[in-house]
């Protein structure tokens, strides 16, 4: 097993077992629901905004190990960021996760997100990995309708 694949699996398992920021947020200023009808993943993302800064972020719901771990890592990265920085991080993550699996990753530019590069080898799992990210964008945009990966 390659070192990158082992790290990918370790991060997925760790964040699935002990997800960070996995809680409902009573005082959230924005929320959005996201669902993946293909596999049944469903999460609500909660944001507490202070102006355009994300003061707090959490998620709650049920999903596979990839969707839960992606949401967990996402929440750890977004705290303290502006909404514009969060949107830019989504673009960077989405571009990476939908790129050709043979394309080398810029680990330095991607930081913690680089471990999800392994998802590229399983196209059906991309929707799992991006579910919470799409819900986060909907929360920033104050969209009331649930977002779907379909």
Helix content, binned percent: 40-55%
Number of domains: 1
Mean pLDDT: 93
Q: What is the highest CATH level, the class? A: Alpha Beta
Number of E-state strands: 4
Uncertain spans, ≥5 residues at pLDDT below 50? none
What does the model show?
This protein has 150 residues and is of the alpha+beta class. It has one domain: Sufe protein. Chain: A, CATH 3.90.1010. Helix content is 42%, strand content 19%. The protein has 5 helices and 4 strands; from the N terminus they run αβββααααβ. It has a 4-stranded mixed beta sheet with strand order 3-2-1-4, covered by helices on one side. Strand 1 (30-36) and strand 2 form a beta hairpin. Helix 1 packs across helix 2 (65-78). The mean pLDDT is 93.
Summarize the structure.
The chain has 150 residues and is of the alpha+beta class. The protein has helices at residues 3-17, 65-78, 83-97, 107-110, 126-140; strands spanning 30-36, 41-50, 53-62, 147-148.
Fold topology:
Layout: H1 3-17, E1 30-36, E2 41-50, E3 53-62, H2 65-78, H3 83-97, H4 107-110, H5 126-140, E4 147-148
Comma- or semicolon-separated keywords:
single chain; 5 helices; 4 strands; 150 residues; alpha+beta; Sufe protein. Chain: A
